[in-house]
UniProtKB/TrEMBL annotation, chains A, B, C:
This is Membrane protein YeiH. Signal peptide: none annotated. Keywords: Cell membrane, Membrane, Transmembrane, Transmembrane helix. The chain crosses the membrane at residues 6-28, 35-56, 68-84, 91-112, 124-142, 180-199. It comes from Actinopolymorpha cephalotaxi. Its main location: membrane. The lineage of its organism: Bacteria, Bacillati, Actinomycetota, Actinomycetes, Propionibacteriales. It comes from the Bacteria. It is found in: Cell membrane.
Length: 214, 214, 214
């Protein structure tokens, strides 16, 4: 068990906070839920990716349940979003930014923790991406939306990039704060460029862009 | 492993039965499924919360799979609902009552089992609530509905109350049949009052009640 | 740990390939996703059932993550569907066939692996059925559809039949390639007959067939 890895913990808590804000603001904006619904959705979005990761790598009970700091940070982010969400202008922009931040940080921590637990490099990359997209996917399923990871504008790809950078830098012994932050920033930048310009990965041959989507 | 704890087992089986009736009656009423769909939904609703609990506390394979009584009770409840659902008047009222009963019983057993497995008190409270709301959330996701735990009328709060009473009475050494039943009854009563009077937890500041919901 | 069981592995990889084609073709046809969405849905459909199985029987990390062949086969099937899906005529027919093939193969491997891990026969049958229907259920939840296992035309029943044949032949010592293939073919045949003739399991007493469904 890797009980203490301060860099992993710090990035993980930052990602938890970002996803808590994202999930709770989404609940405020999209679904007009009450405080319990808002905090519940914020906490599921914040903790879902890490719980899926910990179940898959057999790190049970999940860090969330053995370390109160995750619960506290997720609850704090959700309550802040509940209290201040109505004053925030450009709410949809903030929702996208917090989502991209959580995605980036969790892709790094997921890949790093998977390597710590002895998984191979390809598995660690996939697991990093799953950690990044997991919380948002639960959020979208609960709100009856097709998950962002399927609709994209570059969502899974930046997560895979960040996880790959993480795995490579760990393998080559140059991992540390700069590498971890660099990997997260790369993911965040790709994601935000994708959102800004409405970029999508290639469509199947024979489909044109002006076909109706659903 | 806590292989035998008769009080826990009895409450768990009662909750399983209540949720099996609830899930299968919901399938009869809402979705007009055939017998396999009805029994499947009844069993997922009945067993889902406990399976999520057992995965998270690393009690694997889940009790459901190591103890045939859970499967038998879940199947029996589902088949009873299949056979008699069409004769039951006030079906929607019964559905709500069985859901509240399952929620209450599973919140108690989830918190109790989490403490048994060595989790801290705050974690045990959260895990009790997850156990209570888990099966119904799977049911709603499969039927394409926003889960009750997000829409509420007091759903997560009574589960947290029951789990908190359970954890406190265990910690102070006064847990037993009266405390367990009392915790479940408190949850059930709060939930039913919430349903009866359409109560919801507070909305975010700046939202008024007459805004359109979705 | 049963690290090597060539028959189990071959059937599991064949089922993974069939479900990858099914999930990715469904994404091409129903949701008009881009390449990342298509491959993601293909891989979730292909790997979801086995991951759920491995979580429930505590075989963690799941075979998917400890054995690269699953990832490779799932990715290959998804990319083939991406590249050739637009040329395939009768796409909806192929989607149903690949789904039935994956269902049949995974019901056999799920039941076999559960027995290997020491579960009882009834639990192994249920787990085989869960393995068979798991990936398709995740696919349907992510695409906002009521899962096939609830809507049916005989979907859970053939999976239970294949799992039961598997468990019985293993218990009576006559399991091997003929028994495994026979169990899968039986499941496949029942499923395809159900689809062809629009068969459903019995409805609850008092419901008539001409009632509106949803």
């Amino acid at each position: 068990m890797t009980t203490e890895n301060p860099l992993l913990l710090a990035l993980d808590l930052a990602g938890t906070f970002a996803f808590a804000l994202n999930g709770a603001l989404t609940a405020v904006r999209v679904a007009r839920l009450d405080i319990v619904g808002i905090v519940t959705l914020g906490m599921i979005t914040a903790l879902g990716g890490g719980i899926i990761r910990d179940v898959l790598i057999d790190y049970l009970p999940p860090a969330t349940f053995s370390d109160w700091r995750y619960l506290a940070v997720a609850a704090a982010g959700s309550l802040i979003a509940f209290g201040f969400g109505h004053r925030m202008h450009r709410l949809s922009g903030l929702i996208v930014v917090f989502d991209a931040a959580g995605l980036s940080l969790f892709a790094v921590t997921g890949a790093s923790k998977a390597l710590d637990m002895g998984l191979g490099p390809a598995q660690a990359v996939i697991l990093g991406a799953i950690t990044g997209v997991g919380g948002g996917t639960l959020r979208d399923v609960l709100l009856q939306r097709i998950p962002t990871v399927l609709r994209s504008e570059l969502y899974a790809i930046p997560a895979l990039v960040a996880a790959t950078i993480t795995v490579l830098t760990i393998r080559f012994g140059v991992y540390g704060i700069p590498a971890a932050v660099g990997a997260a920033v790369a993911c965040f930048a790709i994601r935000m460029v994708g959102v800004r310009y409405g970029l999508n990965a290639p469509r199947p041959p024979g489909q044109t862009d002006d076909e109706p989507e659903r």
